[in-house]
Please model this.
Amino acid sequence: MITVMKFGGTSVGSPEALQRVAKIVMDEKNDKVVVVSAMSGITNFLVSLADNIGDKDDAVKQFEKKHLDTASHILDAKQMQEFMKEFTPRLNKFKTLLSDENAMKDPYFKDNVTSQGERFSSLLLSHVLRAEGVESVALTSEDCGIFAEGRPLSGSADLSKTESAMAMNVKPYLRKGIVPVITGFYGIKDGVPLTFGRGGSDYSAAVVANAMNADLLEIWTDVDGFMSADPRIVPDAIKIDEMNFGEAAELAYFGAKVLHPRTIEPVRRKHIPLKVKNSFSPEEPGTIIHHLRKPKDELLRSVAVKTDLSIIAISSAEIAFHPEMVARIIKKIAENEVVIYSISTSLSTVAFLVHNNDVKSILLKLNALESGDIERIEVKNDVALVCAVGDNLLSKCGVSGDIFTAVKEAKANVEMISEGASDVSLNFVVPMSRVIDVVRILHKKYVGEDAP
Ligand code: ASP
Ligand code: MG
Model:
């Protein structure tokens, strides 16, 4: 039996946290493979460094000090010596990268710089485990063969290539009882690092679980699991014990910040259950996400929100009869890998829901579309998407009616609706100014206090 255990930035962010994590790893009885994020704050630091390489000497010193201070807090002199044997060459490589004029011109330079944090946090945790008497090896994505494809800063894993490589490069350690600690966040494309987007270590861990054909993936973070709503909006939000892959994927995608939105897919494909656990209170059961979940009677399970969105509505006579035009518009919008959160059409209008920050570039692109056919483009900024997730929402009679009655109570106007695309969620758009009330009322009526 294999368990893949992923620890996030705060879980490896201090000597105390690292020791807590070592204990959690030791308590796991199965064969285990560990995946880590960078220490908290480090990736942000590297992002600014990549943007302004000017003060690199000072930056490298700070970076070095942070990791060495942490290591020397836990390791004794002899263990420190062993640690330095691996630390120094990694640091030298990092320094070389920062002064390599050719590397700087590479479109993947920022991926390379920002992937550095994981290389050092994995080393730290591996040595902390060794200090506790656990045989362990720190492996980079290069060592493992985690292959990636895609554009800079938004890679995806090549699952089948990664599976073959990891069978050769990582499985042998497990057979010898050695615990691999692997870098999250990036894979390798044509020999250089390609990152999976911010927060991408969760996705890395799911890729590793898929490649290792693990029996369980555990994502260890700093909260107790998925909640029925964002506790900052709804203070009495409750923890969700169990979800299926579909529900978790919708929630992660549409706003719950617990998991990187792409974490579900690699494990769902192989029916590998996923647990979200709190490394600061490991005794809590967390949330389990798996294939089969006993259906419950509740109307709603969770309400998530994605804010700072805009609706772009494009009008043209009888657009519904010109699917090729809709296709051209979508292709144009998608060119820069813009995420379209929802699409809705009528006879003469097609509306897209996108992030506020993407509006400007989309409008430029649409203007470049040589098509006299677009009659009007309207933009409504500052809207929010509410994602109401529950069991078989679609097959329950009257659910939409109930939900929209609650929205009306919050005095919110529904600007756009998407229902039917997924049988576990009903998504709709309201103005940002009303969204908090909408979520609170929905939660109170259907999840919390007044739920039937
Ligand atoms: N360290 C990376 C980030 O901060 C990846 C992760 O934490 O999952 O985005
Ligand atoms: Mg994270």
